[in-house]
């Protein structure tokens, strides 16, 4: 807290006041609900509309009462008071923290309806396609009660269906689909081709996941272009390098560096003078580093899997296969080469946007999650968002056991297996959260050998995943999942139909076991939150060893002495405090990485706003034609005979073509600069300053170059009744485009990676 203690106190007082006020409003609304009971549906809907004045909800309790009646009539759920309070906080633009199973889906729909009633269009942002579709259909009757429209946009929708869906008042969509549509809309040459309609509000479900964990994931739109072949020779040379002799891996497992001997060996084998010469530093050295990174730091079955001759990334924060994700092109190619796979074509990057940039485009952002408090700093720093904590409807009856700490990973893993078997023998369902795919499979294998039937969850199908997780509360069920599996799904005791609810409750409810502490307490708490839903009993228990990544990284350079028992267990407050300390250190490291990376992204984000504005002017006015009239008067005069519409459209197309091309060139250049910039640190330049200097200089030239080239094209190209024949000059836009997400930080959140790579760790 330090010097800012006063600030926190002030914030606390503020939110308490809000809390009292909103509780009073909610109490009033309960009374108002009674009086609406006799009214028809249409009258109740009108009552809600009457509560709106001047684009804001003036009478909040009347509004909440109407929503409660509608929810009861259409969804069979009467909102709990805490849910109504949460709705008020969302309408104020906060991120609410509400525990798993407390009914955030209904809260989100009520708040979205409130925004829509005041004339605002809402994007309800979900973490996957499955939830977008599920929630839109589930909440549809509530939204339509008020004469409003709702739709979902998912991966499978074609352009026309998307366009129609985006015209609704409330749109449920996964965050990447929203971003891809923004990128594609930035390539159009006529306003009528726009797919996404502007929204006023982003209401983000699982807000910490989208706004913090995945914030810097770039969404990419690429177009076809025969790419340059990656150099197989470099991969070969690098594949023969030996750890500790030719290269060293840093203690944190994030960086790898050539030793002097290693560098000399590479130079010899490639037949070059120096890797660090001016001529090689931006090209060969970059490729060598990528190949080395792929070889030394990216481990099959931890960071990626290979299926059907293709590389599939494992999403670090969710621990499952990430469809449509790629690493930055060079790295992807390097790993493909290392695995002997056909190197997939990167194509040409046309445009890219990070989730953080995407979210900052909305005039208002609010959100909900079970774990917001621990992300308070990030939410304030990056989005200026305030966190409101909503009480539970029923008291928590989950028992969170103290961590069980072991000296070595081996002793810990033995204990995990025995504990699962012991709990399972009573019939209590067990959900185990592991760190990565390899660990989940190792554990499942050992449990099966001990005669236990195990569901393993590292599926890539969201719907299938949701079903397995939903079944995880059944009698005697053991489910082993990768971390974070099943955000958004509800684990009911006694199976999805709650048939054996009371039996399972008597057994103690769901037992959640974590096989290690995560790098952030938030991820731990997401896992814990799977148990103890809506006042159910439950248990959570984490195992940690002093060899775990979080301890090694967070406790680097610190020494600790402890006296383990005969089974390796350490019971000491000092040691458990130390582990909590290690986790705070790793959290701090993640925040620092986020802040640093954002510094790089922010300037480009500002520059793209300028590009967007220029694009909008070119699309919506005849500015392009006017500029050509000035810069190429003869050619313009020669075209006067053509219909105005044709002339203006041709001018627009030419201008946009060169603007988009210049922007794509700029992104590509800045990407290269960023990849090689840390090398400039060797030359004692501060990388970020250097990066900014180059970005600003290049951007200035970009605008001028785009116009100059457009004028040249305008003079050269044939323009007739059919428009500008850009194809003739080889200036066509890509005939095919595709989208993907880049996992820019392949090592974030990885588990006990080094150990997992050497055989089954549970044996
Ligand atoms: P969360 O997103 O907060 O984890 P969900 O929206 O998935 O929770 O809801 C969890 C469960 O609670 C669902 O089965 C839902 O039907 C139920 N539920 C939510 N609100 C109410 C309510 N007011 N009355 C009865 N059941 C509710
Ligand atoms: Mg949810």
Secondary-structure map:
Layout: H1 5-36, H2 41-50, E1 52-53, E2 56-57, H3 60-75, H4 81-91, E3 95-97, H5 104-117, E4 122-126, H6 129-145, E5 150-152, H7 159-166, E6 170-174, H8 175-185, E7 201-205, H9 207-213, E8 218-223, H10 232-239, E9 247-249, E10 256-258, H11 260-270, H12 278-281, H13 284-296, E11 304-307, E12 310-315, E13 320-322, E14 325-326, H14 329-338, E15 348-354, H15 355-360, E16 364-369, H16 376-383, E17 387-389, E18 397-400, E19 404-406, H17 409-424, E20 430-434, H18 437-449, E21 455-457, H19 462-470, E22 478-482, H20 501-506, E23 510-514, H21 521-528, E24 537-545, H22 549-554, E25 569-570, H23 573-620, H24 623-631, H25 633-638, H26 644-680, H27 687-716, E26 719-720, E27 723-724, E28 737-742, H28 753-756
Bound molecules: adenosine-5'-diphosphate (ADP) and magnesium ion (MG).
Architecture overview:
- By secondary structure, the chain is α/β, with parallel strands linked by helices.
- Among the domains are: 25-221 and 356-389, Rossmann fold (3-Layer(aba) Sandwich), CATH 3.40.50.300; 397-571, Rossmann fold (3-Layer(aba) Sandwich), CATH 3.40.50.300; 589-716, Helical scaffold and wing domains of SecA (Orthogonal Bundle).
- It is built from 28 helices and 28 strands.
- The strands form 7 sheets. Strands 18, 19, 20, 21, 22, 23, 24 and 25 form an 8-stranded mixed beta sheet that branches. A 7-stranded parallel beta sheet has the order 5-6-4-7-16-3-17, with helices on both faces.
- The longest helix has 48 residues, at 573-620.
- It is flat.
- The chain binds adenosine-5'-diphosphate and magnesium ion.
- Magnesium ion binds at residues 104-105, 205, 488.
- Residues 104-105, 205, 488 line the site of magnesium ion (MG).
């Amino acid at each position: 807290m330090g010097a800012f203690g006063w600030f926190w106190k002030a914030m606390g007082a503020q939110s308490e006041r809000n809390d009292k006020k909103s509780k009073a409003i909610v109490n009033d609304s309960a009374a108002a609900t009674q009086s609406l009971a006799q009214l028809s549906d249409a009258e109740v809907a009108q009552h809600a509309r009457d509560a709106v004045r001047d684009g804001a909800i003036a009478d909040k309790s009347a509004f909440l009462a109407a929503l409660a009646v509608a929810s009861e009539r259409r969804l069979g759920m009467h909102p709990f008071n805490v849910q109504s309070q949460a709705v008020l906080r969302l309408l104020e633009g906060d991120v609410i923290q509400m525990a798993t199973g407390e009914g955030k889906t209904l809260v989100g729909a009520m708040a979205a309806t409130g925004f829509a009633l005041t004339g605002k269009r809402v994007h309800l942002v979900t973490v996957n396609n499955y939830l977008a579709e599920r929630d839109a259909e589930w909440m549809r009757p509530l939204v339509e009660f008020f004469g409003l429209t709702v739709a979902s946009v998912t991966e499978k929708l074609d352009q026309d269906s998307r366009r129609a869906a985006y015209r609704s008042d409330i749109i449920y969509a996964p965050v990447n689909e929203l971003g891809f549509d923004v990128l594609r809309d930035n390539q159009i040459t006529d306003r009528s081709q726009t797919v996404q309609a502007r929204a006023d509000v982003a209401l983000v479900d699982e807000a910490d996941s989208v706004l913090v964990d995945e914030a810097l994931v770039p969404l990419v739109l690429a177009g076809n272009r025969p790419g340059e072949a990656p150099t197989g020779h470099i991969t070969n040379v690098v594949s023969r390098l030996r750890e500790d002799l030719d290269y060293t891996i840093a203690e944190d497992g994030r960086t790898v560096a050539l030793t002097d001997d290693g560098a000399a060996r590479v130079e010899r084998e490639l037949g070059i003078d120096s890797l660090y010469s001016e001529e090689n530093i931006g090209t060969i050295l970059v490729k060598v580093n990528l190949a080395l990174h792929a070889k030394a730091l990216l481990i099959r079955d931890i960071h990626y899997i290979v299926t059907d001759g293709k590389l599939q990334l494992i999403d670090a924060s969710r621990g499952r296969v990430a469809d449509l994700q790629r690493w930055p092109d060079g790295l992807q190619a390097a790993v493909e080469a290392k695995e002997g796979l056909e190197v997939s074509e990167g194509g040409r990057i046309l445009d890219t946007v990070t989730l953080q940039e995407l979210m900052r485009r909305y005039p208002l952002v609010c959100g909900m999650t079970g774990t917001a408090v621990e992300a308070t700093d990030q939410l304030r720093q990056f989005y200026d968002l305030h966190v409101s904590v909503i009480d539970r409807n029923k008291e928590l009856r989950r028992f969170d056991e103290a961590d069980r700490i072991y000296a070595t990973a081996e002793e810990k893993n033995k204990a995990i297996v025995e504990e699962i078997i012991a709990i399972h023998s009573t019939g209590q369902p067990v959900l185990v959260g592991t760190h990565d795919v390899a660990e989940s499979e190792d554990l499942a294998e050992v449990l099966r050998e001990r005669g236990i039937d195990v569901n393993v969850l590292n599926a890539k199908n969201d719907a299938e995943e949701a079903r397995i997780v939903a079944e995880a509360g059944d009698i005697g069920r053991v489910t082993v999942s990768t971390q974070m599996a099943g955000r958004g799904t509800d684990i009911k005791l006694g199976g999805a139909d709650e048939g054996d609810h009371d039996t399972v409750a008597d057994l103690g409810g769901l037992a959640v076991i974590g096989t290690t502490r995560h790098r952030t307490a938030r991820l731990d708490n997401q896992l814990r939150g799977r148990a103890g839903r809506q006042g159910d009993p439950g248990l959570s228990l984490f195992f940690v060893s002093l060899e775990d990544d979080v301890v090694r990284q967070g406790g680097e350079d610190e020494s600790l002495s402890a006296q383990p028992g005969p089974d390796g267990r350490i019971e000491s407050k000092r040691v458990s405090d130390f582990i909590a300390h290690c986790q705070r250190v790793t959290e701090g490291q993640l925040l620092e990485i986020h802040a640093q990376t954002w510094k790089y992204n922010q300037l480009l984000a500002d520059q793209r706003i300028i590009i967007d504005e220029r694009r909008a002017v070119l699309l919506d006015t005849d500015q392009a034609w006017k500029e050509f009239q000035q810069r190429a008067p003869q050619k313009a005069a020669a075209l006067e005979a053509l219909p105005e519409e044709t002339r203006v459209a041709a001018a627009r197309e030419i201008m946009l073509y060169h603007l988009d091309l210049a922007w794509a060139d700029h992104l590509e250049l800045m990407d290269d600069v960023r990849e090689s910039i840390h090398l400039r640190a060797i030359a004692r330049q501060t990388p970020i300053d250097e990066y900014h200097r180059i970005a600003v200089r290049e951007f200035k030239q970009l605008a001028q170059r785009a116009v100059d080239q457009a004028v040249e094209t305008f003079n050269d190209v044939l323009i007739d009744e059919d428009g500008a024949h850009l194809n003739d000059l080889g200036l066509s836009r890509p005939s095919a485009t595709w989208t993907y997400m880049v996992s820019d930080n392949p090592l974030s959140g990885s588990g006990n990676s080094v150990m997992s790579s050497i055989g089954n760790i549970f044996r």
